[in-house]
């Protein structure tokens, strides 16, 4: 990786992370989309696919591998729709112990800021999001705890329009949208 500043946008399922990242991207910031949903979509098309409701450990490994790959070759400020360390919260909620090699692969990653999006009202399941509202709330709390235990102070982002959330995050991260090329 080149010189990079990673900014994490996290929160439980259904907190509006993807919509907020889309707004950050529209503002000209570099973003990395969520790996978990992409892995689920990919694995749902395979017989015996590794999914969070069939093989949690194998699924988490696929997500982490995809996240780590997406960080290669990046430079500058990059906003992440979830980050590799989110896996620790998922392992915890699922009552699983993270494998040592998974922990080792995350050891050199540091974030300049972590933003925790408040939960939206009206949580809904879909083809990739199968947790109920109670599980989503538990994941949300576990994410906050994991980042705090890692020494970060997640900045809470209240519920508001995704564009306003993106502006608030950029401001709190001390950033202005990149200037368009001349």
Structure description:
It is a single chain. By secondary structure, this protein is an alpha/beta fold. It contains seven helices and five strands; from the N terminus they run E-H-E-H-H-E-H-H-E-H-E-H. The chain has helices at 17-26, 35-44, 56-71, 86-93, 100-106, 133-149, 162-172, and strands spanning 4-10, 30-32, 76-81, 113-117, 155-157.
- Percent of residues in helical segments? 40-55%
Cα gyration radius (Å) = 16 Å
Q: Whole-Å distance between the termini? A: 27 Å
- General shape: globular
Quaternary: single chain
Strand-pairing-aware structural class: alpha/beta
CATH topology: Rossmann fold
N-to-C order of helices and strands: EHEHHEHHEHEH
The CATH architecture classification is 3-Layer(aba) Sandwich
At the fourth CATH level, what is the homologous superfamily? Answer: P-loop containing nucleotide triphosphate hydrolases
Tally of individual helices: 7
What fraction of residues sit in β-strands? 5-15%
Spatial strand arrangement across the major sheet:
2-3-1-4-5
Mean pLDDT, to the nearest integer, reads: 88
Give me the count of strands.
5
Question: Which CATH first-tier class would you pick?
Answer: Alpha Beta
Describe the main β-sheet briefly.
5 strands, parallel
List low-pLDDT spans.
none
Structural domain tally: 1
